[in-house]
């Protein structure tokens, strides 16, 4: 297996190349175009057998210095070294996480005597008004969502030069933590978790929000088995035309789970991008592998755009055909062929969980297929996930959905042949 971008060779960085690329742009050290040029160079180096991490290439190219990289990798160093910051009404207990753009602390909300989580921006980013505006936008977006399967937003504010975002503290772990231990979920467990997150997305989508970064790291699990969708950092309202225009041409998301339309940077990204990313997460959970692997983000994203998906039941034969159909429909490269709503996806998830065939996964098959057969036209079957193949040729896209379609074709052909035989017998007897 190639070294994934979340664990780059060379210098270590929380979140990997994809996160670093976003961090240096947000810190205004490098332009998006310069990051893309570096990613293209990384692909060339990998092809030449000279793998390198994005951090090392940025330093070698003179875009950033080693000290700037250290500050990005450890944001606490520039403003949170030593004593923890003080926020009125809260007692910070300990740091539970740190990334390129914020540190997260476990804290006690004194007024209600409860434990919460507080995300705090380092001062160097607090001086960037655009970044601060996006930080508050995250808080406002999360505050409009109230669902048991979404990490609850509590407060957002500023004190002593520190901008902070208070949220529900989840005492548990992430799906990524399990996958990092090489653990593969069984079908029932994965279905339960994905169904819970689909309900969270249904709630968000109904209120006009798209998450845009659904992935195992953003699915938190409580000790009671409740799944919660976290990190609304990339979320925006689908109707926010100004934000869509500003982000046009830029790929927001995580390479392993990003939708094709996000990669292309189109302006009108909608809820179907979340469905794709949820399908990719589902795939990883039940197969133990990400849908597409590569040594650089650009290589992985190219595969999302161009490479056929290996059906999940080919990697894990114990999976039901119905589950494979759901994943492949959710991960169709053409978003027109994905689920038409998160509610439709939930109908199929619930059907599969009860051992039934997923009814919505079959919607969208070529209705003119049988007519083409009757007319003697070339036989073409549209398979799960929108793949197309000539009838009778071997397929690499799984057997569940197509088996049903082929059975229908064979039955139809048999009926036609039977009618013709009866007609011939009647004609001969006369």
Architecture overview:
- The protein folds into four domains: 16-73, no CATH class; 77-168, Phosphorylase Kinase, domain 1, CATH 3.30.200; 179-361, Transferase(Phosphotransferase), domain 1, CATH 1.10.510.10; 369-428, no CATH class.
- The protein is globular.
- Helix content is 45%, strand content 13%.
- With 430 residues, it is α+β, with helices and mostly antiparallel strands.
- The protein has helices at residues 16-26, 32-47, 54-60, 66-73, 76-79, 123-126, 129-143, 175-180, 187-206, 241-247, 260-264, 271-287, 297-306, 312-315, 321-330, 342-353, 369-374, 400-429; strands spanning 90-98, 103-109, 114-120, 153-159, 162-168, 172-174, 209-210, 219-222, 227-229, 236-237, 380-382, 388-390.
Keywords:
430 residues; alpha+beta; 4 domains; 5-stranded antiparallel sheet; 3-stranded antiparallel sheet; 18 helices; disordered N terminus
Layout: helices, strands, pairs:
Layout: H1 16-26, H2 32-47, H3 54-60, H4 66-73, H5 76-79, E1 90-98, E2 103-109, E3 114-120, H6 123-126, H7 129-143, E4 153-159, E5 162-168, E6 172-174, H8 175-180, H9 187-206, E7 209-210, E8 219-222, E9 227-229, E10 236-237, H10 241-247, H11 260-264, H12 271-287, H13 297-306, H14 312-315, H15 321-330, H16 342-353, H17 369-374, E11 380-382, E12 388-390, H18 400-429
Antiparallel strand pairs: 1-2, 2-3, 3-5, 4-5, 6-8, 7-10, 8-9, 11-12
């Amino acid at each position: 297996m190639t070294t994934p971008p979340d664990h780059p060779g060379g210098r270590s960085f929380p979140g990997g190349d994809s996160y670093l690329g976003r961090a240096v742009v947000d810190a205004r050290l490098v332009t998006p175009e310069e990051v893309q040029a570096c990613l293209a160079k990384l692909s060339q180096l990998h092809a030449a057998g000279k793998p390198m991490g994005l951090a090392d290439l940025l330093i070698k190219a003179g875009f950033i210095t080693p000290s700037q990289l250290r500050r990005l990798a450890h944001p606490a160093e520039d403003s949170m070294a030593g004593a923890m910051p003080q926020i009125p009404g809260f007692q910070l207990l300990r740091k539970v996480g740190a990334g390129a753009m914020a540190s997260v602390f476990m804290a006690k909300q004194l007024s209600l005597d409860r434990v919460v989580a507080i995300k705090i921006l380092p001062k160097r980013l607090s001086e960037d008004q655009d970044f601060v505006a996006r930080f508050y936008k995250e808080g406002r977006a999360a505050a409009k969502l109230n669902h048991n399967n979404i990490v609850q937003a509590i407060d957002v504010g500023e004190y002593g030069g520190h901008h902070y975002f208070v949220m529900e503290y989840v005492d548990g772990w992430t799906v990524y933590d399990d996958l990092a231990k090489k653990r593969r979920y069984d079908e029932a467990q994965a279905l339960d978790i994905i169904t819970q997150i689909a309900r969270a997305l249904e709630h968000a989508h109904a209120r006009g929000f798209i998450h845009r970064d659904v992935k195992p790291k953003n699915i938190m699990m409580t000790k009671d088995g409740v799944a919660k969708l976290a990190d609304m950092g990339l979320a925006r309202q689908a109707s926010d035309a100004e934000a869509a225009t500003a982000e046009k041409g830029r790929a927001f998301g995580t390479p392993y789970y990003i939708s094709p339309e996000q990669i292309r940077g189109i302006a009108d990204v909608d809820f179907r991008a979340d469905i794709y990313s949820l399908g990719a997460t589902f795939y990883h959970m039940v197969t133990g592998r990400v849908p597409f692997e590569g040594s650089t983000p650009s290589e992985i994203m190219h595969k999302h755009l161009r490479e056929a998906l290996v059906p999940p039941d080919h990697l894990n034969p114990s999976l039901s055909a119905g589950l494979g159909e759901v994943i492949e429909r959710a991960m169709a490269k053409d978003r027109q062929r994905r689920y038409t709503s998160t509610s439709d996806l939930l109908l199929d998830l619930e059907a599969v969980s009860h051992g039934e065939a997923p009814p919505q996964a079959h919607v969208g098959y070529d209705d003119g297929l049988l007519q083409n057969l009757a007319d003697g036209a070339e036989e073409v079957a549209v398979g799960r996930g929108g793949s197309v193949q000539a009838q009778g040729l071997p397929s690499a896209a799984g057997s569940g959905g197509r088996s049903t379609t082929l059975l229908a074709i064979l039955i139809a052909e048999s009926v036609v042949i039977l009618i013709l035989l009866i007609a011939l017998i009647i004609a001969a007897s006369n």
